[in-house]
Amino acid sequence: MLNRGVLVLNKHWLAVHICNVRRSLVLLYQDMARVVTEEYELHSFESWRDISRFARDGVIRTPSFQLIIPEVIMLTRFAKCPPRQVKFNRRNIYLRDNYACQYCGRTPSRDDLTIDHLVPRSRGGRSVWANVVLACTDCNARKGNHLLNECALNLLRRPKKPHWTACVRVSDYESHRPMWQKFIDNVYWNVPLKE
After folding, report:
1. For the chain, which terminal residue's Cβ has fewer other Cβ atoms within 10 angstroms, N or C?
2. Would you say the pTM of this structure is higher than 0.70?
3. Which domains does the chain have, with CATH numbers?
4. Percent of the chain whose pLDDT exceeds 90
């Protein structure tokens, strides 16, 4: 329960991060954050502890009190927006492609997945978002050192750089939280677009 995700907002109410419950409670206790409720009310640690006395579900108990697990917190001092860049690394490629082969659609074990360059490095291909996809070992062996038009493989979808929220680990349960959607949808619609 302590590792469950909590949406973090900056002081302008924009989603900037996802942390775990443990970290959110530390921020709340240190007066660096406030809990945000469904009615957009803000609560300090003390007021949240008072409200939590009457809760029965979704609480963390200590010897002297209990606390409702927050879904959304707002930082009291942080006003910046998160960097809109996603790090180009193995973990984020796996997350973007949903741990599935982009040629056949299978989701084998991690040991049977490789990162394939659409334009092979030996033919001048670079390691960038638009040129790499996950491939199962069978499809990668079939493709070899060829371009897509030289072999009998087709991509299920073209690779592109993901939005920063796509590379945050969120379970299916967490991604469908109505409270989160109020703020994540805001990020989607208010992100400036590049020409």
Report:
1. C
2. no
3. 5-83+170-190 (no CATH), 90-150 (1.10.30.50)
4. 58
